[in-house]
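Trying the structure run again after the queue cleared.
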Amino acid sequence: MATPYLARLTTALAAAGALVLTASTGAHATAIGTTPVHTFEYSVGGVTMKVPTGCMFTHVIRGSGRKITYQNAGVDCAFVGALSSGFCNWRIDFTYADTDNRTYRTSRGRTHNECKADPMRNNSPQRLPRYGKACAHLLVNGVRRVSQCHNITR
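Done. Tokens:
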């Protein structure tokens, strides 16, 4: 059985910054997208924290049509990014918007007060009422730092 870290690392490497859509039997689809986390600084208890380059935010969806059977998002860091203290006061939210880009549902994640180098969240299966897009957002100290979205189409 693979560890969660190994599974996430494999997913991030497979994505390699590209959106991949794969059709398999039963008209199921998988979408994997990765977006770089840009360097930023923030304050925790009067201490300035810096997230350097080298971190990627990956969002994975499995399902068919408007039915999402699996959804996960998380950060993986390499090189200089792996040496940082990580992300403190973080949460991951999932949002769903219609084709006019109006957000109609948000699954807000729990805020984690501890610092973590590889934050990750799974979301429960969803039955979407409309086509549009599904997004994952990483927030650190209440500020959205990176987002990754997938179009949900027929």
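The longest strand covers residues 87-98. Worth checking whether this holds up in the mutant runs.
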